[in-house]
Amino acid sequence: MSYEIKGLKEECGVFGVWGHEAAARLTYFGLHSLQHRGQEGAGIVSNDAGSLHLYRNHGLLSQVFKDESTLDTLPGKAAIGHVRYATAGNHSLNNIQPFLFELSDAQIALAHNGNLTNATTLRKELEAQGTILHSNSDSEILMHLIQKSTQSDFLSKIKEALNTVKGAFAYLIMTNDCLYAALDPNGFRPLSIGRMSNGAYVVASETCALEVSGATFVCDVKPGQLVKIDDNGLTIDHFTEDTQYAICSMEFIYFARPDSNIAGINVHSARKKMGKILAQEAKKVEADMVIGVPNSSLSAASGYAEASGIPYEMGLVKNQYIARTFIQPTQELREQGVRMKLSAVRGVVEGKSVILVDDSIVRGTTSKRIVRLLKEAGAKEVHLRITSPPLKYPCFYGIDIQDSKELIAASHSVEEIRELVEADSLEFLSEDGLIKAIGLNLDAPYGGLCMAYFNGDYPTKLFDYQSVLEKRQK
Amino acid sequence: MSYEIKGLKEECGVFGVWGHEAAARLTYFGLHSLQHRGQEGAGIVSNDAGSLHLYRNHGLLSQVFKDESTLDTLPGKAAIGHVRYATAGNHSLNNIQPFLFELSDAQIALAHNGNLTNATTLRKELEAQGTILHSNSDSEILMHLIQKSTQSDFLSKIKEALNTVKGAFAYLIMTNDCLYAALDPNGFRPLSIGRMSNGAYVVASETCALEVSGATFVCDVKPGQLVKIDDNGLTIDHFTEDTQYAICSMEFIYFARPDSNIAGINVHSARKKMGKILAQEAKKVEADMVIGVPNSSLSAASGYAEASGIPYEMGLVKNQYIARTFIQPTQELREQGVRMKLSAVRGVVEGKSVILVDDSIVRGTTSKRIVRLLKEAGAKEVHLRITSPPLKYPCFYGIDIQDSKELIAASHSVEEIRELVEADSLEFLSEDGLIKAIGLNLDAPYGGLCMAYFNGDYPTKLFDYQSVLEKRQK
Amino acid sequence: MSYEIKGLKEECGVFGVWGHEAAARLTYFGLHSLQHRGQEGAGIVSNDAGSLHLYRNHGLLSQVFKDESTLDTLPGKAAIGHVRYATAGNHSLNNIQPFLFELSDAQIALAHNGNLTNATTLRKELEAQGTILHSNSDSEILMHLIQKSTQSDFLSKIKEALNTVKGAFAYLIMTNDCLYAALDPNGFRPLSIGRMSNGAYVVASETCALEVSGATFVCDVKPGQLVKIDDNGLTIDHFTEDTQYAICSMEFIYFARPDSNIAGINVHSARKKMGKILAQEAKKVEADMVIGVPNSSLSAASGYAEASGIPYEMGLVKNQYIARTFIQPTQELREQGVRMKLSAVRGVVEGKSVILVDDSIVRGTTSKRIVRLLKEAGAKEVHLRITSPPLKYPCFYGIDIQDSKELIAASHSVEEIRELVEADSLEFLSEDGLIKAIGLNLDAPYGGLCMAYFNGDYPTKLFDYQSVLEKRQK
Amino acid sequence: MSYEIKGLKEECGVFGVWGHEAAARLTYFGLHSLQHRGQEGAGIVSNDAGSLHLYRNHGLLSQVFKDESTLDTLPGKAAIGHVRYATAGNHSLNNIQPFLFELSDAQIALAHNGNLTNATTLRKELEAQGTILHSNSDSEILMHLIQKSTQSDFLSKIKEALNTVKGAFAYLIMTNDCLYAALDPNGFRPLSIGRMSNGAYVVASETCALEVSGATFVCDVKPGQLVKIDDNGLTIDHFTEDTQYAICSMEFIYFARPDSNIAGINVHSARKKMGKILAQEAKKVEADMVIGVPNSSLSAASGYAEASGIPYEMGLVKNQYIARTFIQPTQELREQGVRMKLSAVRGVVEGKSVILVDDSIVRGTTSKRIVRLLKEAGAKEVHLRITSPPLKYPCFYGIDIQDSKELIAASHSVEEIRELVEADSLEFLSEDGLIKAIGLNLDAPYGGLCMAYFNGDYPTKLFDYQSVLEKRQK
């Protein structure tokens, strides 16, 4: 469902293209299809015959590039772009990516999706050497590591730097004559490569952006790989061989767009299967209809309906227009503000017993609000079905909940949560059910998924975050 | 589906409230839920203890009221608002509603949804009497008729004026101490009244706006009625008894939000039923899945799937973010621009035979584009199913196609259309199927629906448009 | 000096051109030179081969036309423009001129400088006939009178309307094929005609705008004249012969730009002469320097210095950049806000006895502030010399002080004012001295000047304002 | 005169305050009075109890801080601000000052007026050590030198860095608990300290900003000094004793505001004296009046008039409103564009012989344009008098002409220039006359002035610019 309402936010989407006349426009199209990955800032760096140009600003892509003339200031046949979700209080333009570093004899642009786990340590080490970072963003640390590297050639410098940073990262780096793409050794975040009919290469956080830009899927960037794209074409290299898949399961559950494939698995189909398996696992109830929370749970709801034989209905409507819900002075107005975004369909649910399918419960406040919406619209019973296991552990790989106090399931039983969200019954998908529904089957724990959110089994050392986690566990 | 793509646009949505402390904010919420009825301009007039204040501007509601401080300039316990679709080339701010007329001893605000059929004639008559209209909009004519009326009291003046204008109209009129709502004798456009828990009354183009504002449905404004709301409550009066229902069938087919009820019929349920009946009427085909064109055809597609027993899948994804598709220099970029808004899900449709459900075909260009999107994404067969009869006749009651040249079905057979849109088969819902699916059953032709779009049976005299129609028929 | 500080504001400047390829740009240039006549709104209507186009907005010309593309939306070989000072609380865009009236078969644009004295009466009469005005501005009344006129041809309609409105007016009216300029029977406001080398005609509120646009002065529009300019050239006609000059003396004293000529008299030279005559009339004092309040009193100060033999120095500096002085929370900050605009030159005035020349005293607050600025900067003595007689009576002809309570000289003696403004001495120019300095010598009272501000001798009947005046006199 | 017209631009003005509740507002006031020193960007960093906040943007101060709410985002009792003139093509926000550097354990803000002569060398050295600069501006180099310094305490780090940079600099540096001000060893640019009645200290590029902020002048920052201001008050220290005054003479001639004092000399008085001495040095001509080019030459013109006994008149009027002169398509429109800014007063100069006083001739194009304006307005003769010696050598200390090709006097004789600018006679002030008029009398060459512009005698080694100069001399 809508990320603002949910309270879970992932950091960023990236897009790059090399070899197309209208590189910045293609990047604009591609970023638009990745807009769900970050709504608080966007930017594009284009490469015009070796000269790099940057435009970035706060807001949605449509606000950042509201004047076509802005796109025209980004000429050239290559470009990288970024959409960003900004952590609170950090509204400096300097934090919006791509970053463009200006050296006397070179320009280098950088875009990053993910979260480093040793950024604080690295930042302090760099400052002790006299470096002044340009932003509050950990994303730029890689660039300083490259610049400080004593390796002899640029490729070796990048590799050294990529081995120094830890955690989750999908990087795009554009120099005056080359585009690099790199993925961390666990492949937490998706990153795919496509090819256009004119031979141009496209790299993007999700395959939906390849489709939008008219590119054909070539391959995913794999954990530990460093891909180089220039006028000679594509070269696949690696910066480490010490890799093991741990793809973020939340990408499948709700981050990614349903039309994307991750590691070959279509996201809509995985979600529909989550719904089907949940229908099989869950206690049967007499209900008149299955409804999904739009938009992210509609696939799962249709799967649930199919498997249960209960009709699939549209009991909730999400307003397709984005509006600002100003801070409202009264409780009544705040509730109406919620209904601006999502409303229950009285004509459908009145007097009916409803199975409500949602993808996850974070704090529980959203679920409570939706259950209430349905009951105010006359629903007799609301049976809540969640297509993921309970979220109990913080994420340090790019999802913005690093404190498990915010996670209701970290401290409440399923029955307690049910009571809190005022549902008539509540069931979660099992961990096994989730793994089976996604069906990755990679040679790694959990078939190649990161399940730390649900079971605390972090696939990497946590570095700076180790103490955070330990504090929690006391 | 998205109106920009479709090319059919309705003129406007209206919302009014009387008796609530935060009237302008409520109107903002209400208009937001009516945003699908007009995206090119919006405005609110508030009534602060008899003093009227206006703010209006071009663009979406979120752009017009992007600063909360703008709402704060609209104090008072009553307000009316309007969202507008502007006809090309008429970008003056003066044309954005509500209109606020300043007289020496009174202020009067006016908002209009619909289209008059004798506006040109009335405008000329008024000018001959020395009147200078303030805008290019026909909507303001009513106000001049009121002001010119020789009736003794304001209510009689309004009634006289309402009997002078012809065609489709849902008016909100706010004076310093009163709010009026009036509906044309055929009730072409919906207009409903709700009541809030504090006693405030709300009037809106669709019941979804009542829900959003937290009001309970009271009644629809009926054809020929003139409703008055002031501090003494609600008074239902009428300006004519010569009425006959002819509710625009397009409201059910795709204009209205699925969570709205029109004349007691839920729009989602009607659409689902259109899908079901169409599945029964249409020739059976072997297909792997049913997909709907988002968002307006999803209800119908799920109905089609249920009735046919073929699985319902998400084969098309609409980008939930609105982006500007600048005029693109090449055909390739234009096609990518289309995919920015709507994309086919390769992982779902590749190698499959697909039943594609859409609500209507206007020019055919959109259908062709969607069929192509699906085939480019690997769909083996695309069987197009339309949940309305072929559109053959222009509308003069508020839908912006007044020239049947733009309607492909006015000059092409079903088979010719199928060939043009490159579908493997094509079926339309029958007129009877449509009437049955909606199920109005009012004591009027076609159960109370206007079917002129499909069969040319206009429920009123056409006045200024008679010649337009006659020209066409030659 | 700066009008915001002074508190006296005149309503508007007008500019028109007929017959030049770049009519809107010329109008932009011309209006810029008239910007001192109105800073709160500006607009241009262009005439492109009979089709009229309007752009207008709040703010300075540089804000209204900050994008060159806006000027490009105003094509054509003729244009009229307006700069406006808006009365408080009336910030509707509708009040910004030129007005553009859209009739079914014609477009008419109107721009007005001045103030009608019978507007309230006329507005009520029009409304009683069913007319709804478009704005709060009295300026549009003329257009409705034209439209209502029963005269047979347009020229006769205009003449009838011009004889119905009373007070001060300089009108520009542009139709699809013609530009009219009209001046009230007393010629309160200046209006001059120029001719460009290509034959184009220019009409402007001040001759400085003729110079800026590269036109050569042809003649002033005279009281009661109605001038017509079209592709056949210039035709001078009149709507009344009952005229008598009463040119606003304030135009000479401080409204007009020093490089303008009014009725053949250069404004800078007139001001310098006011300074000279005041130096002769005033009691001699031992002083080290003469300083003028920038910018409007610099001419007079240099005249005073020349006549008195005392050196002319720059003891006050006006910041050439316009800044917003936000409402400041403390008295200290408010004083600094004043100094942002005008500051005393300590290095010049410290320890010195200063003759301070200013053009007028309205409320006295500005004079007091400037005297204080100088004393805080170390001036030993400040002898204030005003190059106009005391302002005692309200103006109803376009200067925005209609209440004599705001005029300190209406209720205080010169000695009382001196004490209030904390000057060491204070002298005003005599009425005869003013008339002599300007030197109009027209065949009318006061040589053709309106002196009502100083002596209450209004040159016309006051109509709506008679009661205002009478109340005051009680 | 207006700097845009002239083509000479100085880089920047700085303002700082420590110890005042409304520090950002005071800085806004102060910067406004320094706006003439830079119109292309502005910023403020405030210090709220140790926490630094930045806002900066392109444009005039009134545009950058057009919303009062922006000032409200800058709380605290200390602040530094900067107004900037940006060199062409370098429109990144990153180049607008103050710079705010974010370290893990500290924030440091920096503002710079001047130009370093060894910046290119230093930049390359820093990059070789792995440093990535944040901007194209040389101003940030100091900060990296501080950060890289191996000195043990911050004060020693700053001193070391200040001894590493060469050329012209007035720096303000604000840390979390302290404000530093430093001036280069030659004192090229002015920098003065004031004290407010509440004990707050103010530092500013010109004393006019002290006056505006209500501070009393305390002392100038002297060459080689490093001043520290914190809650304990003012401490005057120095980073070098190897100093020698070489104050930029152009500050007196036209950069500084006439109400500022530089090294105790009032700028208006110095200019008036330049005019007087020039009147004595120049060949006498029969002329009707002396006129100055507004605004910078009015003081000199009044001095010339006094010394020559010829009346001082206002023969040129500068429009007090700033307008954009868009690129105009025709020569005629371009000329009108010039007149928008400056116009000749026909009523004053027609038929007259005029002495025109201006402060300098750079390319000669402006002088030619003004002479033409006067002649087109009817002036019989125009005798041009320049209150500075011919400009023959480039400046490397902060004035934006580094190529003597742009200086007409570098390659033309006085008679050749006279002919080019179409004046009837032309005289320049002598070097000795200029030194005498300013009257600094410091114990240094030329009484403490930098006269390199006129005679090539640069007071420092030129480092990176040595080759630039040598190329020129071939």
Please characterize this protein's 3D structure.
Four copies of one chain form a homotetramer. The first copy, chain A, is an alpha+beta fold and 474 residues long. Chain A folds into two domains: 3-243, Aminohydrolase, N-terminal nucleophile (Ntn) domain (Glutamine Phosphoribosylpyrophosphate, subunit 1, domain 1); 266-320 and 328-438, Rossmann fold (3-Layer(aba) Sandwich). The model of chain A is unreliable at 1-7 (pLDDT under 50). In chain A, a hairpin with a 5-residue loop joins strand 9 and strand 10. Chains in contact: A-B, A-D, B-C, C-D. Chains A and B meet through helix 2, helix 8, strand 16, helix 10 and helix 11 of A and helix 2, helix 8, strand 16, helix 10 and helix 11 of B.
Condensed summary:
With 474 residues, chain A is of the alpha+beta class. Chain A is built from 18 helices and 23 strands. In chain A, strands 3-2-4-1-10-9-11 form a seven-stranded antiparallel sheet.
